[in-house]
Write a structure and sequence with these properties.
With 204 residues, this protein is α/β, with parallel strands linked by helices. It has a single domain (3-201), classed as Rossmann fold (3-Layer(aba) Sandwich), CATH 3.40.50. It has 7 helices and 7 strands. The chain has a 7-stranded mixed β-sheet with strand order 3-2-1-4-5-7-6, with helices on both faces. A hairpin with an 8-residue loop joins strand 6 (177-185) and strand 7. It is globular.
Length: 204
Amino acid sequence: MGLWDDQVLPRVIDLALGRPVREARARVAAGLSGEVLEIGFGSGRSLAYLPADVTRLLAVEPAAVGRRLAAGRVAAAPCPVEFIGDDGQALPLPDASVDHVLTAWTLCTIPDVDQALREIHRVLRPGGSLHFTEHGRSSRPAVARWQDRLTPAWGRIAGGCHLDRRIDELVAASGLTLESATTHPMRGTARLGFAYEGVASRPT
């Protein structure tokens, strides 16, 4: 990684995905329990919203600065936190080994998002679920065209982030069953942001 991606961007993300999105974090964490895998742990911003029923959080995070920024939140976490790797495309976990998976503004940046979703399907226990809050392609054609134009340049400054992925379709194509999914424009980013929130389960 270069200086920007390795040292600066994790700090920018820590601020941008902190207080402004706390309601979304609370919504996506609702219903989590048991052993939870978070892909794209970042600086640990989701920890404060984990329900008491979560017994352990397994964290995947590629940015060393993000992990350092998370230290205080990990120390105060309501459950044990274990860093297990840095690549959501190759999870170092056995099949059917976690109760839930959490992603928060992560699926936009993983290079092979289809492979990452196959991995999520693999490690979820039957009946387990993926809880996601993401951003992606807008349902408004004019906005989607802007997203297509801006994504190449945006990705270079935002850690490979894609503005134009259809998150609900990608999740459904992985073999998971969408239990709920909502979409809405993101406030303040009319030509960039379109939010996806939902839960998808692994069939029993």
